[in-house]
Specification:
heterodimer; A: globular; B: alpha/beta; Rossmann fold; Dihydrodipicolinate Reductase, domain 2
């Protein structure tokens, strides 16, 4: 499909991919590099339908070790995948899942107050969801087989993997 | 030959072409890799600023130690308890021991059904088993006495339809309970005017004692209680559960390390604004002269004589009564804290908690002097004890003063604050330290912008291990809202439960509890000084040599 993209379309899609990847990678690495980082506080601050689920998660110290690990490295891998264009479509799915979890934990509801208040005014649609939608766009307009390591993987990996990964 | 030349050229072109294609392939494949270098540069810088900016370990040395609590023995012997007094506090103490009224459990179960976030029942069920059995209960109100029996038999922590164990014996008098052979230790939750007398009697009967605060109602009995506990060697714990607050242990370390500079003023407060908070408790159904043993309620004749003697000799008769002591009164029975005839007022009931916390943190002992003022300014319901009270205590040998300020008619929160030359510390279930803008100790760090002065620069919540850095905005947010639970070894605890556990473990292990008789003596004398200063309208002093309260 990417062959049909014009140069301008391709360029902007790659820029979008890199920007989102950059955002994920930096968020992930900051957490990985901080030995005291934990998402406990964030989860305790949850609102909306899933509040008690996230609060229970936060109260379980044993579980939090895994939650933190998965979140930190999930962010890093999604970020790397998008920037490098390596398993880019899989990375889009990973990113969408993470953003969905953040949205469920901190939905932009009327009257909801958070520790880190939104810097603008949002109702239901916040920047997380917009980023999520952008990842959806990148999933259906893949660019990594043109610009990215997937270009190489495309040639060396057996065809049966392709649909799944790219 | 020409053909050969042509072929050669075409091969070269092909090679050039394919190598160009190869180069393009590589560029297109790896085009975005250099971006990772830029990211790495940013990350290195981020990490450096993150680490350098918040490090204050050079001016703020503090250990990583979390609060330490006396741990239960694996195979400690079961302790057989007796309970004296099953009013509001008696019920709370029984819950802390693991025994709740079935009707109370019913309300918790109901509350959980309505709101799944209400986990009080779950928390209570999971509270550690303290390996005790209640063999005797005593209350002079039939309703409470019977309810105490039922509660003590609720060994499975269930509601009304639960399976109960055997009910303990109900005694009509505390003397009978104390003479029982199957009781090792007693919990005293009777009104204030009975604390001292019951503790002395229990000690003489060889029973260990957990007594609610304050330890005494009159000054003279304070010496008797200390003597009895010392002579008999029983294990005594006074009911200041604040002793088990993890933050107080950290606060003590902060003071010891001199991190606030010279502490010259301490402010402690009571801020309440409900009838319940002002001791206007409900009159319970079924209470009457037939179901309440009023004669016992009146008090021990020796104590009453001490009380009357003090009041009359200093011209304070107006504070006695106003009703005759032998006249039955439901108000006085259920709301006894409102009258000096039974109560120790704000000083004994609430100042003592604050003072004991400060004494735990700073080891101040009995103050050199106390001055008080106040009055009945809101609850004009016939009470004789004030509902607004200020007491100033001075420790000239420590160069500091403590101001206690209380109101029962405004819940405006004023914290427990230790004011030092370099910083002030506010202590509650969390602890926060704010640097003083004129501090010398923190001057350099303030100048560098590392330590702020408009917000706390350090907070501690129990269980937190990182102590050498400026608190982040996130941590502060949570600490201030108390959203992070207090844990001991990963489990959430109630301080009263921990305080009773410590007492029981001291009995088992032959150790001394944190709020022992010496601490209790200091607590009682301090409160009495404040009370006498209020009643007499003049400054009270403490004569260290003679261990006596003297007048200015």
């Amino acid at each position: 499909m990417e062959n049909k993209l014009s140069k301008a379309q391709l360029s902007w899609l790659v820029i979008l991919r890199i920007f989102i990847g950059w955002h994920f990678l930096y968020e992930g690495m900051v957490k990985v590099l901080n030995p005291n980082w934990t998402s406990t506080a964030y989860l305790m601050d949850s609102q909306g339908m899933f509040r008690s689920m996230f609060n229970n998660m936060a109260a379980n110290a044993g579980l939090m070790k895994y939650v933190d690990f998965l979140n930190e490295w999930g962010l890093v891998l999604v970020g790397l995948g998008l920037i490098l264009g390596c398993f880019a479509r899989l990375s889009c799915i990973g990113g969408i899942l993470l953003l969905l979890l953040y949205t469920f934990s901190h939905p932009a509801l009327i009257g909801a107050e958070y520790m880190m208040p939104f810097e603008g005014s949002y109702f239901l649609i916040d920047k997380n969801i917009i980023e999520l939608a952008a990842l959806g766009v990148l999933f259906v307009f893949p660019t990594a087989r043109v610009i990215g390591i997937d270009r190489f993987l495309d040639r060396v990996l057996p065809a049966s993997f392709h649909k799944f990964i790219f | 030959m020409e053909k050969k030349e042509i072929n050669k050229t075409s091969d070269q072109t092909k090679e050039r072409k394919s190598s160009a294609v190869g180069r393009r392939e590589v560029i297109k494949t790896l085009a975005t890799v250099p971006l990772l270098g830029a990211m790495a540069y940013g990350l290195v810088k981020t990490r450096k600023t993150a680490l350098i900016d918040r490090d204050i370990s050079d001016v703020f040395p503090l250990s990583n130690k979390n609060a330490v609590f006396l741990q239960p023995l694996a195979k400690g012997k079961q302790i057989r308890l007796g309970l004296i007094g099953f009013g509001i506090r008696g019920k709370q103490l029984m819950r802390a021991l693991g025994f709740a009224e079935p009707s109370y459990i019913d309300t918790l179960i109901e509350a959980e059904k309505l709101n799944p976030d209400d986990t009080r029942y779950e928390v209570f069920r999971e509270q550690d088993d303290l390996n005790v059995v209640i063999n005797g209960v005593c209350d002079i109100f039939d309703n409470y006495g019977q309810s105490a029996q039922l509660t003590a038999s609720n060994i499975n922590r269930e509601g009304t339809n639960g399976k109960f164990g055997p009910a303990p014996k109900r005694y009509r008098t505390y003397q009978e309970l104390l003479s029982a052979g199957d009781i090792d230790a007693v919990v005293i939750a009777a009104p204030d005017h009975w604390h001292g007398t019951m503790t002395v009697a229990a000690a003489k009967a060889g029973k260990h004692v957990y007594c609610e605060k304050p330890v005494t109602w009159t000054v003279p009995e304070t010496y008797l209680v200390r003597q009895a506990v010392r002579e008999t060697g029983i294990i005594f714990q006074l009911g200041h559960q604040g002793r088990q607050t993890a933050c107080y242990q950290k606060a003590e370390e902060i003071i010891r390390n001199d991190l606030l500079g010279h502490v010259n003023l301490i402010q402690v407060c009571t801020n309440r604004n409900t009838p319940n908070g002002a001791w206007v408790y409900s009159i319970i159904d079924g209470s009457s002269p037939q179901t309440i043993d009023w004669k016992q309620f009146e008090g021990d004749p020796a104590r009453i004589a001490e009380y009357n003697d003090y009041m009359t000799s200093f011209g304070l008769d107006r504070y006695i009564g106003p009703e005759e002591r032998n006249k039955f009164s439901l108000e006085r029975f259920f709301r006894w804290r409102c009258w000096w005839d039974y109560s120790t007022g704000l000083s004994g009931d609430l100042l003592t908690h604050e003072y004991d916390a400060v004494n735990q943190i700073m080891h101040l002992g009995i103050p050199d002097s106390a001055t008080s003022s106040g009055g009945v300014y809101f609850f004009k319901d016939g009470r004789t004890v004030p509902d607004v009270l200020q007491t100033t205590f001075e420790w000239p040998d420590r160069d500091l003063a403590m101001l206690y300020s209380a109101t029962l008619a405004s819940s405006r929160n004023r914290g427990k604050i230790f004011m030092g030359h370099d910083a002030s510390m506010e202590v509650s279930n969390m602890l926060s330290i704010t640097a003083d803008r004129d501090s010398e100790r923190y001057a350099a760090k303030i100048k560098q912008g590392i330590i702020p002065t408009d917000n706390p620069f350090f907070t501690y919540v129990p269980g937190q291990s990182k102590v050498d850095a400026v608190t982040s905005a996130t941590e502060l947010y949570f600490a201030q809202r108390g959203l992070l639970y207090t844990y001991v070894d990963g489990k959430r605890y109630d301080t009263t439960h921990l305080h009773m556990r410590e007492w029981l473990e001291c009995i088992r292990q032959g150790q001394t509890p944190s709020c022992n008789i010496d601490q209790a003596f200091q607590e009682a004398m301090t409160a009495h000084m404040g009370t006498r200063a209020y009643l007499e309208g003049r400054t009270m002093y403490w004569d260290k040599e003679k261990e006596e309260i003297v007048r200015g």
